[in-house]
Each structure stands twice: as C-alpha cells, then as structure tokens.
Amino acid sequence: MRFFSVLIVFLVVCGCNMGEKSKKVTETTVPERAPLSKDSQIFLGNRLFSEKTCITCHDVNKEKVGPSVKEIMTIYKEKNGDIVSFLKGKANPIVDTTASQVAIMQANIDGFLKNISDEELKTIATYMLHVDELNPE
Ligand code: HEC
Hints:
GO molecular function: electron transfer activity; heme binding; metal ion binding
Domain Cytochrome c: 40-132
Number of domains: 2
Protein name: Cytochrome C
CATH class of the largest domain: Mainly Alpha
Keywords: Heme, Iron, Metal-binding
Largest sheet: none
Number of strands: 0
Helix content: 55-70%
Number of helices: 8
Bound molecules: heme C
Radius of gyration: 24 Å
Distance between the termini: 82 Å
Shape: globular
Organism: Maribacter hydrothermalis
CATH architecture of the largest domain: Orthogonal Bundle
C-alpha cells in the first residue's frame, strides 16, 4: 500500500513537471490563428498584392509589364491552373511563355515571394480569383 502511495506521488510530480515543459514549448511557438473568412482572405490578398509589388506590373484590367489580373484569371480558369503552385515555383507558366517575360516573373518568385507563407500565397490566389467581382466592368 505504501509503495502505491509513493508511486502515485511520484507520478503526480512527474506529471506536473511534464505539464510545465509542454507549457514552455507552447510559449515559444506562434499560436495558431483561427482560419480567415473568405472576405478576410480577399482583403489580405489584395493588400499583399500591393505590398509584394505585384500591382506595379499587373493592373487589374489592362496589360502593363505583365498580363492583367483579369487576363491571368481567364486563362487560369479555362485551363484549371493552380496559382499557388505557380507562385511557389512548382508549376510552369501558362499565360505568357515567352522566355524573357517568364524570366521577369521568375525574379519575383525568387525575390518578393521567397519568405511568404502558404497561407499568404493562398490569400493572393483568392484575391486574384475574385478580382472581377470586386472590379466589375
Ligand atoms: C516586374 C514585373 C512583375 C512583378 C512585380 C510581378 N509580375 Fe507576375 N508576371 C510578370 C510577367 C512579365 C508575367 C508574364 C510571364 C508569365 O506568364 O510567366 C507575369 C505572370 C504572372 C502570372 C501568370 C503566370 C503564368 O501562368 O503564365 C501570375 C499568376 C503572376 N504573374 C502573379 C504575380 C504576383 C502574385 C506578383 C506579386 C508577388 C507578381 N506577379 C509580380 C511580371 C511581374
């Protein structure tokens, strides 16, 4: 009987210590956010589209250095393309495959998009997907 009470005390003490250890771990890791609503994704995506300089080459409606967002999305919808994979450098271009143009865009994938999270990339793709609802002609 005595052995069991010692064992229980031992287990309780160990349990407390373990609790403290896991608390420390959670303190140093970034807590997970609740998932963003569709509107919040579009909002954040739109903001990142400016912050990451995309907007300087991609106007919503007209061609600038790169194709317009509407043109890109028409082709991506037609061909069932995956913007996130393209922006991660894991899918080939399908809009403009001219080598010099592809190189300009590739520099952004290697530069401005280097330290972006998957979630942020998804918000950019969501913004692009809904761009015509936000900017009707
Ligand atoms: C310096 C100019 C420039 C900037 C800045 C730029 N792009 Fe591009 N982008 C281009 C050019 C040129 C093309 C056409 C070549 C191509 O289609 O790959 C292109 C093509 C694309 C395409 C279509 C790719 C395909 O399948 O052909 C997507 C999607 C895209 N850009 C997204 C973005 C996003 C998102 C950003 C911001 C992070 C961005 N671009 C920033 C010049 C730019």
